[in-house]
């Protein structure tokens, strides 16, 4: 009797172990860890083809990544403590309540991608909060050098708009930016890691005369050039200059945010910033971890299903960390007191000029 009981217990354990490792096969033959994730494959195919122009790391990817942040950072326990609504975090409120949130000053230009994403949400059975983070993770996978971001499914519909003034501005002080992120649950090191997003980014509205002006010389590759180039002495403005939140950049055609400039040089963040120069593995791991946190800000993770294996694996980084042609180590504004800036090769050829990110 005891033997029979033990045998059936063992059999039960074997079955449940198998259930843990067995993958679900979806209608189209693709597999995923959890059958609940199968709904994502048709959405993946649709957005790769029709939102990201056949799997590019272009403007819509950049805008979709920015949107993941602007939706998620709408979360303030400090406001909740004061008895006010602090926002629902990564809940899709930026799209659900777009008429309220897109006009917020810090959301300038975000209405573009909101307008582009809305029909995809309407077409597929998915909440705005899930779609925003899914599109961000899929989009980033199109950028060589990026990590495969996590994606958890199951955010409920947002119930209220986020309050204004929770999204950082490029003209905010480092104190203000770090305080805002701390309120939302992020350390200064995580802030620096999240800023790796500006490695695949451009500005349309900081200087309205030069839309699509990138923050680094490789806006379609997730690499450390952003961390290198922001550390170089600024010498000119790419456009008319004198814009709020903009400081001089080292390269023609490249724009620099005051906030990026200041965070790269602040004693609380400078060494973390420098640590990403020429360390692609650290850059990937830190960004992946910080994005995983950002994507579930304000959400009850115990109610979400891990569908990370639906996100495509990005291609490896192309090129190696370098100083742009025409510049040298002497152009580095050393800010980390503990360790010297890594010695990098300089690109051969004429002085680099960065072309704009084309609109699609
Ligand atoms: C200190 C915090 C931050 C500030 C002040 C800031 C500010 C800005 C500004 C002013 C722009 C240009 C918008 C335009 O003119 O079109 C921009 C673009 C962008 N930001 Fe940030 N940002 C911050 C953090 C982040 C984070 C945490 C992420 C993502 C995780 C992010 C992702 C992006 C992306 C991908 C773009 C490019 C959008 C495009 O090319 O269309 N940013 N950011």
Give a brief description.
Keywords: Calcium, Disulfide bond, Glycoprotein, Heme, Iron, Lignin degradation, Metal-binding, Oxidoreductase, Peroxidase, Signal. The protein has about 350 residues and is mainly alpha-helical.
How would you explain this protein's 3D organization?
It contains 14 helices and 8 strands. By secondary structure, the chain is mostly helical. It has one domain: Peroxidase, domain 1 (Orthogonal Bundle), CATH 1.10.520.10. The strands form 4 sheets. A two-stranded antiparallel ribbon has the order 1-2. It has a two-stranded antiparallel sheet with strand order 3-8. The chain has a two-stranded antiparallel ribbon with strand order 4-5. The longest helix is centred in the first third of the chain and has 20 residues, at 2-21. The protein is globular and about 55 Å long. 43% of the residues are buried. It binds protoporphyrin IX containing FE (HEM). The site of protoporphyrin IX containing FE (HEM) has 24 residues, from α3 and β4. One of its GO terms (biological process) is hydrogen peroxide catabolic process. The active site is at residue 70. One of its GO terms (molecular function) is metal ion binding. Its cofactor is Ca(2+); heme b. It comes from Cerrena unicolor (Canker rot fungus).
Show the helix and strand layout.
Elements: H1 2-21, E1 24-25, E2 31-32, H2 40-50, H3 59-72, H4 77-81, H5 93-96, H6 98-101, H7 110-123, H8 128-140, E3 152-153, H9 174-184, H10 188-194, E4 202-203, E5 213-214, H11 225-230, E6 246-247, E7 256-257, H12 258-265, H13 270-275, H14 280-294, E8 305-306
Antiparallel strand pairs: 1-2, 3-8, 4-5, 6-7
The structure holds protoporphyrin IX containing FE.
């Amino acid at each position: 009797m005891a033997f029979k009981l033990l045998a059936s217990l063992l059999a039960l354990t074997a079955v449940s172990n198998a259930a843990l490792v067995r993958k679900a096969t979806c209608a189209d033959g693709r597999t995923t860890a959890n059958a609940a994730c199968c709904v994502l494959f048709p959405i993946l195919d649709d957005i790769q083809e029709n939102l990201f122009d056949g799997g590019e790391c272009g403007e819509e990817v950049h805008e979709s990544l920015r949107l993941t942040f602007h939706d998620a950072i709408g979360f303030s326990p400090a406001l909740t403590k004061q008895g006010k609504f602090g926002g629902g975090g990564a809940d899709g409120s930026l799209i659900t309540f777009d008429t309220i949130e897109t006009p917020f000053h810090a959301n300038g230009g975000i209405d573009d991608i909101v307008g582009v994403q809305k029909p995809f949400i309407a077409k597929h059975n998915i909440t705005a909060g899930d779609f925003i983070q899914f599109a961000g993770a899929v989009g980033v996978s199109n950028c060589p050098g990026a990590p495969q971001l996590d994606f958890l499914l199951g955010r409920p519909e947002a119930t209220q708009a986020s309050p204004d003034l929770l999204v950082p501005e490029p003209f905010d002080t480092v104190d203000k930016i770090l305080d805002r992120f701390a309120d939302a649950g992020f350390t200064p090191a995580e802030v620096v890691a999240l800023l790796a997003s500006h490695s695949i980014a451009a500005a349309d509205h900081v200087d309205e005369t030069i839309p699509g002006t990138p923050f680094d010389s490789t806006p379609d590759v997730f690499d450390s050039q952003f961390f290198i180039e922001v550390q170089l002495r600024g010498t000119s403005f790419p456009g008319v200059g004198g814009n709020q939140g903009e400081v001089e950049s080292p390269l023609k055609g490249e724009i620099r945010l005051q906030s990026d400039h200041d965070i790269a040089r602040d004693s609380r963040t400078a060494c973390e910033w420098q640590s990403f120069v020429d360390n692609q593995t650290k850059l990937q791991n830190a960004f992946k971890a910080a994005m995983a946190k950002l994507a579930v800000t304000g959400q009850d993770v115990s109610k979400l299903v891990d569908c990370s294996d639906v996100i495509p694996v990005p291609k490896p980084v192309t090129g190696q960390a370098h100083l742009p042609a025409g510049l040298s180590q002497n152009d580095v504004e050393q800010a980390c007191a503990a360790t010297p800036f890594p010695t990098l090769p300089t690109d051969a050829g004429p002085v680099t000029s960065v072309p704009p990110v084309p609109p699609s």
